[in-house]
Amino acid sequence: MTSAVRTTDAHQHGEHGIEDHDRGLLFDVQRLVGRRRALALFGGTALAALAGCATTTTGTSTATTAASSAAGAAAVGDVAVIPQETAGPYPADGSHGKNVLSESGVVRSDIRSSFGSSTTTAEGVPLTIRLTLVKADGDTPVDGAAVYLWHCNRDGQYSMYDRAVTDENYLRGVQASAADGTVTFTSVFPACYSGRWPHIHFEVYTSVDEATAAGQILSTSQLALPMDTCSAVYATTGYEQSVSNLARVSLARDMVFGDGGVSQLATMTGDVSGGYTAALTVGL
Question: DSSP label at 165?
Fold first, then answer.
């Protein structure tokens, strides 16, 4: 199991241009690392042992291993290890100032509404996100791990960071994996903002306690949404800006998905009227 590197370079999110934070893991590894990112770099071996997994590379630097993961999934056993990707500048996991993980209410499956001082609900086409965590050494479900998941809203804004939604914390949540390795989130379909393929961020922790303590991360990655589903959703009211943004990007040329998104492309079911389900198997 590879450990992840926190990568959260800042930029002004309003225009979502391609900045340092969206150049991918290899670029981020080469930048200065903070205390928690250093832990992620040098604590991978112990953490992998704790999770009962093992990496396939020995005697190499963490940076080299991370770069290899970013270039594509490393096949181990029956399942591929999920590529490690940048968390971007808006994770709210304590590594970039803001920390939603320490707030009461973050452990939840329905992430459409803010919690705490606001109860605003994000609008958009309904989307269920189902991740299945498995050990990459034999397709064994990972029970009791935790996933912190977040994504932008219908307007391409990230809660807690963009000026229009600074006081919101919707579209963020933590779930523990069940005995079959699954975590399920109820959400809305995210926008396509300028310069990036439509995606959903997530971090995997050893447990809910570790996640809500903003502890060390087992894996940081992103889920990619398929073209045909994006086109159908963006043809609906409220997603008008995403139509033009999607026309200017492609999954194969996205600057974050190291292997063209092949290992992170969700399997979709459903439709616009009833909502979609995005499913992805996450090898650890």
Answer: G
How far, in Å, are 20, 121, 230, 250 from residue 196 at the CA level?
13, 24, 13, 8
Asked, for residue 147, whether it belongs to a domain, the answer is yes
Over residues 4-27, mean pLDDT:
42
Paired tokens of 228: 């045909």
- What CATH number corresponds to the domain at position 29? 2.60.130.10
Scan for tokens 């139509």, then name that residue: 243
Cα–Cα dist 149/247, whole Å? 26
- Flag whether pLDDT at 271 surpasses 50: yes
Does some domain include residue 98?
A: yes
Residue 61 lies in a domain: yes
CB 10 within 8 A of CB 46: no
At residue 9's C-alpha, the angle toward residues 6 and 10, to 5°, is 135
Structural domains of the chain, count: 1
| Residue 143 placed within a domain | yes
* C-alpha count within 13 angstroms, C-beta hemisphere, residue 146: 21
